[in-house]
Amino acid sequence: MFLQVEGLRKSYTSGEVTTEVLKGVGMELAHGELGVILGPSGSGKSTLLNIIGGIDRGDEGKVTVGGVDISGLSDSQLTDYRRERIGFIFQFYNLIPTLTVGENIEVVAQISQSPLGIDQVLKAVGMLDKKRRFPKELSGGEQQRVSIARAVVKNPALLLCDEPTGALDYSTARDILQLLEHIHKDYGTTILMITHNAAISAMANKVYRVRSGEIVETRINDTVLPAERMEW
Ligand SMILES: Nc1ncnc2c1ncn2[C@@H]1O[C@H](COP(=O)(O)OP(=O)(O)OP(=O)(O)O)[C@@H](O)[C@H]1O
Ligand SMILES: [Mg+2]
């Protein structure tokens, strides 16, 4: 398995109150699969994704990505792991406002080991003609396209998406999901995506339903629905 999570536990303590956010989570994805994590607000989805992406650390358990047990990495090794292997897409696009579209992609390409071409990824997300624009001159959907290009340019082994369509209207959300589907097919990228929206899980190979820090259901879709045919 390309991604393997076993017995993952995580608690946060503030003052005298300790909250158990992940209570022994297990999941796995094969190389090139698209997985969806589904669950209500506060169930621990982002915490799980952030630990897999090396932004946060678990308290107990094991997370293996491409044969590397990331729970055993030092802080600087974890930074390298994040930089070299992981692409992140968030609900709010986190583009650098003072840089153009092209420059936002370029800063990531520059620190990557085997980046794709900047124009190639801008073309793939349909934003090549807006390369010299600034983020504030773009719509939300366009900014999300740029943030997808920024995550994809490093040619990541694993693309992690935290509610990538959460801030978008219905038809823009479908466009973005179709774009992720193309990236998944064209580049063979393994993708793990969080959503609130059960309808979106139809495009995934595997669906993990999370409730209160536990995986309560694992589903394997034998047939995957193209994003353009999904409705909600
Ligand atoms: N840094 C932190 N310190 C304290 N508590 C935290 C921290 N991060 C998350 N939590 C708590 O952990 C729980 C799970 O949070 P998480 O962000 O993983 O949920 P989520 O499933 O992604 O929710 P949403 O759908 O609203 O984004 C929440 O109760 C949250 O308050
Ligand atoms: Mg979240």
UniProtKB/TrEMBL annotation:
<keyword id="KW-0547">Nucleotide-binding</keyword>
<dbReference type="GO" id="GO:0005524">
    <property type="term" value="F:ATP binding"/>
</dbReference>
<dbReference type="InterPro" id="IPR017871">
    <property type="entry name" value="ABC_transporter-like_CS"/>
</dbReference>
<dbReference type="InterPro" id="IPR027417">
    <property type="entry name" value="P-loop_NTPase"/>
</dbReference>
<keyword id="KW-0067">ATP-binding</keyword>
<dbReference type="Pfam" id="PF00005">
    <property type="entry name" value="ABC_tran"/>
</dbReference>
<feature type="domain" description="ABC transporter">
    <location>
        <begin position="3"/>
        <end position="232"/>
    </location>
</feature>
<dbReference type="GO" id="GO:0098796">
    <property type="term" value="C:membrane protein complex"/>
</dbReference>
<keyword id="KW-0813">Transport</keyword>
<dbReference type="InterPro" id="IPR017911">
    <property type="entry name" value="MacB-like_ATP-bd"/>
</dbReference>
<comment type="similarity">
    <text>Belongs to the ABC transporter superfamily.</text>
</comment>
<dbReference type="InterPro" id="IPR003439">
    <property type="entry name" value="ABC_transporter-like_ATP-bd"/>
</dbReference>
<dbReference type="GO" id="GO:0016887">
    <property type="term" value="F:ATP hydrolysis activity"/>
</dbReference>
<protein>
    <submittedName>
        <fullName>ABC transporter ATP-binding protein</fullName>
    </submittedName>
</protein>
<dbReference type="InterPro" id="IPR003593">
    <property type="entry name" value="AAA+_ATPase"/>
</dbReference>
<dbReference type="GO" id="GO:0022857">
    <property type="term" value="F:transmembrane transporter activity"/>
</dbReference>
